[in-house]
Amino acid sequence: MSRDTVVLIASVLAALLFVFGTPIVLCMGLWVAIVCSLSDILPLSNFGQSAMFGLKIFALLAMPLFILTGDLIRAGGIAVRLTDFARAAFKFVPGQLAVATTAACGAFAAISGSNAATAATMGRIMIPEMQRRGYEPVFAAATAASGGIVGVIIPPSLIFIVYGVLLGLSPGDLFIAGIIPGILMVAAMSITAAVISKRNGWDPPARPSLRETGAAAWRANLGFLGIIIALAGIFGGFFSPTEVAGVVVLYGLVAGLLFTRELKLRDVPAVFLESATINGLIAPIVGLSIILQETFTAIGVPALMQGFLEPMMHGYWPAVLTCMALILIAGTILESVPNVILFAPILAPLAAKAGVDPIHFAMIFCVGDAIGFITPPYGLNLFVISGITNLPYMRIAMRAMPYLISVLIAWVLIAVFPQLSLVLLRK
Amino acid sequence: MLPLYTFIALMIGGEGILRYITSTQTQWGGTAAIQAFIFLSWVGCAYHVRHRSHLSFDAIRNRLPRKLRLAGMVIDDLIWLVLSGIVIYYSWDVVEMHRMLGATLEGTDSFPQWVASATVPLSWALIAVRALQDLVILLRDPGGAPQPGSGSP
Predict the structure, then answer these.
(1) How far apart are the CA of B145 and the nearest CA of chain A, in angstroms?
(2) How many CB pairs under 8 A join A and B?
(3) Hey, are the CB atoms on A47 and B86 less than 8 Å from each other?
(4) What residues of chain A score a pLDDT lower than 50?
(5) Per the CB < 8 Å rule, is A18 touching B57?
(6) Does A132 or B145 have the greater pLDDT score?
(7) Beta carbons of B58 and B149 less than 8 angstroms apart
(8) Per the CB < 8 Å rule, is A20 touching B124?
(9) What is the pTM of this model?
């Protein structure tokens, strides 16, 4: 059988299996196994050994740690205090709880660098509360799923670490560049939440109280301290981005056990196990994406794609728009980290050639990648929230459409105005 | 999974703080944490095999007639078994090579690398056992098998 025939058969089979519900990690593994065993592209031993070497990247250690941070901050009661503050601060807007959810996602994202942890934590806290206040359950679920996407844009961020390591950019610079785009996305989703809530008469605005807001802010001081440790640790050069994930885990543990005392020593194993199960969902996909990328390279996919894309990318705007379209499509079918591993090395050089600043392009790539968390068929945040609420995946996806449109608008603004990404870097 | 996760958190967080305070850090901390992460990830993978909760697009499968749905689950289990066989076979080669060469874990003087490497075939053996377990339960009692997405989260 020719090489092309094998690749075609493997691709059709993997696509069919994916559509009919076979886990994505299996589809990826099967594709590589078929291509390696039936052609001379790569030896099958490469696939076998990818399980050993695919995850052997120091930067990836931030992934389990950011997930654990999220769970510890929640179990220690710090996440609730942050959401209480957000609720008090946004009492004056229509849909106060929905807006508070998106804002609290932003605050939480400044401690944890994982979208899944942000969506899961905020979902567990805010969805029941929103339902009690009369919000439609699917809308509450869609709000938490959408708010969670800023988990990887507001620093610290797992995607920025992987992107930086892969393309030789400073993760610290990417973290700084992500601040304004992250805030812009939170603002876009907050406006959407307020408009939808007002239209449906959910949670009308109330008289704000400065005293109440101040008291809530004081109660959330451990959350703010966590944010300061994470950000000052990175920007002050005290810790590497991966180390900061570990430091914040220890902070979350100590703060929950000793300060809020809401985390009991006997509960710690359950929290760790919960995080481990989420890591067990994402890490295998990341591990297999490395061998997938190697196989793509061996087949010549990057060269083929570059050859195909280059004529479309003459000039700044054609390059940006073509990349955005590709990132959006890739985000609908793949997880964020594999997307970075597979496509960033192909697209970033083409964009740089067209005159796009590498840091600005990193923001365009990563924001587009993050939007993929709420786009079916493969939207990780939708899966996470569907798992928590037992609501149908596609119903949440449909209800998240207004949020999707709002972050798409924010994404376009981020692409059109490079200053949004570069101004804090004084570039 | 608990000791592995605790080890990773203590190593990375503790090392960061240690370096900040004393300007020194262990040579083996990062390498050992990576090995623990690899082991943790594949053991976590096995957990989701058992609960059929790996991420999948199941909107169509859930609407299929029961027999076709069960056939899909059998296919999933069989693919897990095939992939496990490949990974165990070839990763064991690496373990053997490390043992033959007497390689030590990076940053350590005497910790055998093959012990760390052996966690990969070991955890994939667990994945195979879980897939087999699922398959047996499914074939014995098709109604009693865990449905896709029944595990956490």
Answers:
(1) 16
(2) 217
(3) yes
(4) none
(5) yes
(6) A132
(7) yes
(8) no
(9) 0.87
Q: CA A139, CA A142: separation in Å to the nearest integer?
A: 5
**How many CB atoms are closer than 10 A to CB A317?**
12
Residue type, A315: G
What is the DSSP-derived secondary structure letter of residue B112? B
pLDDT one-digit tens code per residue, B78-114 = 999 999 999 999 999 999 999 999 999 888 888 999 9
Interface test with B, best of A277, A291, A375 (most B CBs within 10 A): A277
**Hey, what's the torsion of the CAs at A79, A81, A87, A88, to 10 degrees?**
-160
How far is Cα A82 from Cα A187, in angstroms, rounded to an integer?
A: 17
Residues B8, A285: C-beta atoms closer than 8 Å = no
Pair A185, A149: CB distance under 8 Å: yes
Residues of B in contact with A256 (CB under 8 A): none
CB burial of residue A168 (10 Å; 0-12, 13-18, 19+): exposed
Q: What whole-number distance in Å separates Cα of residue A12 and Cα of residue B59? A: 19
Residues of A in contact with B120 (CB under 8 A): 51-52
| SS3 letters across B4-42 | HHHHHHHHHHHHHHHHHHHCCCCCCHHHHHHHHHHHHHH
Q: What is the pLDDT of residue A305?
A: 86
* CA-derived radius of gyration, chain A: 21
Tell me the residues of chain A between 102 and 141 that have a Cβ less than 8 Å away from chain B: 120
Check CB contact under 8 Å for B12 and A279.
no
B110-144 pLDDT, tens digit per residue, is 899 999 999 999 999 999 999 999 999 998 887 66
Q: Is the pLDDT at B152 greater than 60, yes or no?
A: no
Contact status of A243 with chain B (Cβ, < 8 Å): yes
Nearest by Cα to A219 from A37, A86, A414: A86
> Largest Cα–Cα distance of chain A, in whole Å?
75
DSSP H stretches of helix in A61-170: 62-75, 78-89, 96-109, 115-132, 137-147, 158-167
Please tell me the predicted confidence (pLDDT) of residue A293.
84
Name the phi and psi angles at B115, rounded to 5: -65, -45
Q: Does B50 touch chain A (CB under 8 A)?
A: no
Give chain B's radius of gyration (CA, Å). Answer: 20
ipTM metric = 0.90
Take residue A151 and report the two structure tokens written for it. 């988990």
A387 contacts B12? CB cut-off 8 A: no
Helices and strands: H and E segment counts in chain B:
5, 0
Question: Coil, strand or helix: which one is A62?
Answer: helix
